Recover the amino acids of this structure.
């Protein structure tokens, strides 16, 4: 009953096989090798665009470096108040941007609405006394597992661009979004200027990419990445992972499985009167309110998951499914809930 | 004839096997797993001390984060003018320290002498008008492949500590130093406050560690690492690499081979009148002056190496040996030199 | 009818006289002169404590440097969401702290309540994934002109200290607070660790001070100030201003006048049905809602003031009184309001 | 016998008179007032160009902000190894640029030669592994009191611009340079992209300016200045000082006097066998070697000056003349030297 996080799952066996197979010859270090170039081409095909892609070692680095390419130290990024960049990265965006400001904004289930952006921007009219909004950052899916569809992304891009801001998308779980919406990847990033694409939560060891759709923004990025300690000498290993992950739609198959498991899990939990779903289940995560005593009992039964929010009597938990989640785990959890008076 | 860099070699097969074997179950992310804890214990045993070790993704990150733990933004680090941190990391130390200053100092073959440190410190007596020297950083072996023996390290530590500075060692190739000196690892870091230990150049994919011997210095490090985008979600994979690398002295065997190949290469090259060794060959790298036309000819024969310095008629080249360098490559190079009038 | 800001007033004539009188001899630069040392002693007497005081050139520098002395780059400062440091200093705190995070919190009329601090701190329990709250910053009076009394300050200090945080007070208008509360200056800063004391809004040209009550926090401050471009060569000139300002309670007399003028202004405005006071008038500023057409009409009559907030039909304006505000200006404004159907 | 520094002199009486006269009415804060705009126009006339000028509170802030406008965090500034920005500002340039690197270069009497710039740039060819040189910074006069003439400045500008770098001039004592060369101010800054113009050492209290000749570089400067705590609320007071200083060539008259006093001082000292001038005396500072026992004796006689460099038996001292230096002080010093066996 391992629902702690999708990054607690191991890598998919195909990823390891790919590493074993490519681990033979010398290759130029620091990304000048053939595999890294192939990976970049694969991303270009995927997004049907003249992109520039840069591999980095973590999702936090991808997000923070992406934002540092968009805003100046006296700039600001409009974000959802619960966005990973705002609450879960220990100030990495502030570090990489040399002190730019994140402006936290409200929105249901982690989503930002165009009107919220507009209203926030209207407060910035005091010239040099205020930081300069230069980017909007959204997560798709959001930290609550909810989705922006292609039209919603484009509506946000339209507002951002109209005001001279750039749009960043945190795609740590983009695979889950593309699989859930059953759309083309490129349709979902239309209007996005820079994407952080994650694969670690989706089945690789680690292979995160910063992808510039507006390639003019990438001109300083090689030095920014090196300076940030993110230019891996043996870049070909994450490159090989990314290539295998994208090959034959492995990434979408794994994400679709995780999404299906989450739907099944939500359906099972919804049957219990004591449990109330806290957000629409659109990707691979289930958020649910349950009595505190039930949460404790499930923990004692060995179920692993995060407590997301706490009230006096009840808690909101997050249950994450991964490419490796099995139906048996879900049935075991449902049984445990039933046992403890769900 | 691949002498470009030791990080151009692939990972040793045992490293990949270790990854394949551990790639099965779920594990808590962000270093809370068993393998990461085992790796930390292995480093503790290795250095016979109550260390605190933190894995990061690159040597540049290891160095820059280590220095950021030692100096304040208004601080300074005394370094060799040709040190990797000073010339080859695109300002990463300045970035991670929020703008501390590296004070470049001279020394033959990349080594700093205690008198040089003393003389440099004597220039800092203008109080708040000057930055505050807070650390000395040395590379062992140096960027020219030369060694500090245990007594030399301790002499530098003595000077640094007497003036209230900490000592950092860049151990990107520490394995080569330990193998060459045939000493215990802990003997070579006596007096060091923080070590960057690299394994990527020694046979892993990547598994770099920042190791605090003065553990009080590590109190802020977890947040500093996270904030720097260096807290890998699946930390257990580099941990597994590090464990395998240290197991049964694999790390020293691989380093000893690379060192032996460099000695052989130096001996072959030294036979040619046109070639002059530029530094003592103490580890796995050979620095040699040769006529520019010979360098060009060797390049055309397919030999890969770095040009380190250039004069009108001649160039200094760096030839790096790795765990995978074969005697045949060296003989092939020697033949090519002979062919082109070495 | 000049109600734009108290820093739009000129310096009090006594301040200029003091400068003319001291402007004769050589003196050691960078604060090593006698006047600067006298100013520090005067602040020590004023606050009845073993303080350390540092002069800087602006209130923004005072606040940002004070916060940089309290929090690390991975730290956080709890602030009111409308605090000057959060909305009006173009990210200076983020710059001087090397990217620490300001956590914006709600509260009526710019005031933070102890419970609000407690509740905010309860959200920081994810270890290295989150920034580390290290300080609370309050403005007294607040940006809405409201006061924390001595007990309220101490209650906040108690909460902050209990959780290991330091307390900073932005005292850009502290004179107005001390005059309004008719208390001793030291009573109002009990529990405060670092104070930014402003005099520019109170009658000097500029002479702002960062005052450490916890002097251990000041150990790095000389270098931090120099590095920030705030170590004025001719420090004796702001020092002389500060000395004259504090002499014979000039600072309190000027503040008391400004406060009295604000009370009078509020009383006059309150008589008009169209105008509604928006905050208690406790110091030298009046916040009032009025119809937009009235605001426009007053502007056309030559009245100067800030529009603080805007709604469709009405606006909230800020009217600031200074040491130079004359009753005639207030009566003129009242007449203008009457004329335009207040 | 006060030769410590030109910033130890008080302000010229005309400067104080100007402040007294303008200290009457309200004025918009933060530089939106008439005097600040006049000061900007005066600088435009002075430099015969479409400049943009920004007042700040110290020379260190002027230099550091100017450099921050020219280089990115991953950039580098080529400087003389003894430049004020490199050794006397406690890392302010590194702070304001978010960690850019100063590359220290040699040169006699503080001057950089075009060939030195060329040779340094030739070392930057490793792409993203190295910081990116984006500016050259020179001091005119240098920290040793020596001059670059107009042709020399233009030659440096030519090299810088040809390589895509900008040219910054630290003009903390530009008045002394213009007076000494008897040229037009604008002739001396031809080719310069950004100038830090100081007046504090030349007779004001403080009124330092950052002046952009390439106004496109100034686009972010208002926010950079505010964020750095350098947007003074009562900007009109330094503006009034600058206006008075420039009026009727007061600045050049004061500088010419200081220069003449330095020439006289040098002539007197040169008569003594025990004293050896250490640099050409081209502006207001005299550098001289003397026996250590003589330096001590002069100190005991009450002479104030800086010891610039120390050897076993002798020291190099710096004697600075100011607008207030009197012939009597120089004769008194000469007598003291004679008395002590000069």
């Amino acid at each position: 009953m391992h629902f702690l996080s999708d990054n607690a799952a191991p890598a998919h066996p195909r990823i390891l096989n790919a590493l074993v197979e490519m681990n033979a010859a010398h290759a130029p270090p620091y990304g000048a090798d053939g595999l890294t170039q192939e990976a970049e081409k694969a991303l270009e095909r995927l997004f049907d665009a003249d992109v520039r892609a840069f591999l980095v070692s973590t999702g936090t680095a991808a997000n923070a470096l992406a934002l540092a390419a968009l805003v100046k130290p006296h700039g600001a990024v409009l974000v959802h108040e619960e966005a990973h960049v705002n609450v879960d990265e220990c100030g990495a965006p502030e570090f990489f941007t040399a002190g730019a400001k994140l402006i936290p904004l409200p929105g249901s289930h982690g989503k930002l609405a165009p009107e919220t952006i507009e209203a926030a921007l209207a407060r910035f009219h005091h010239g040099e006394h205020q930081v300069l909004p230069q980017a909007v950052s959204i997560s798709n899916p959001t930290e609550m597992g909810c989705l922006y569809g292609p039209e919603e992304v484009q509506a946000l891009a339209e507002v951002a661009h109209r005001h001279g801001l750039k749009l960043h998308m945190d795609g740590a779980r983009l695979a889950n979004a593309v699989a859930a919406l059953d759309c083309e990847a490129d349709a979902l990033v239309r209007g996005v200027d820079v994407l952080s694409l994650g694969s670690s939560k989706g089945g690789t060891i680690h292979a995160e990419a910063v992808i510039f759709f507006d390639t003019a923004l990438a001109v300083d990025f090689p030095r920014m990445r090196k300076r940030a300690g993110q230019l891996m000498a043996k870049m070909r290993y994450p490159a090989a992972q990314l290539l295998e992950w994208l090959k034959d739609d492995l990434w979408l198959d794994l994400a679709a499985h995780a999404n299906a498991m989450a739907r099944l899990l939500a359906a099972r939990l919804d049957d219990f009167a004591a449990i109330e779903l806290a957000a629409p289940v659109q990707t691979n995560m289930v958020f649910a309110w349950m009595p505190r005593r039930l949460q404790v009992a499930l923990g004692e039964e060995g179920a692993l998951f995060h407590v997301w929010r706490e009230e006096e009597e009840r808690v909101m938990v997050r249950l994450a499914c991964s490419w490796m989640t099995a139906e048996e785990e879900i049935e075991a959890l449902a049984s445990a809930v039933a046992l403890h008076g769900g």
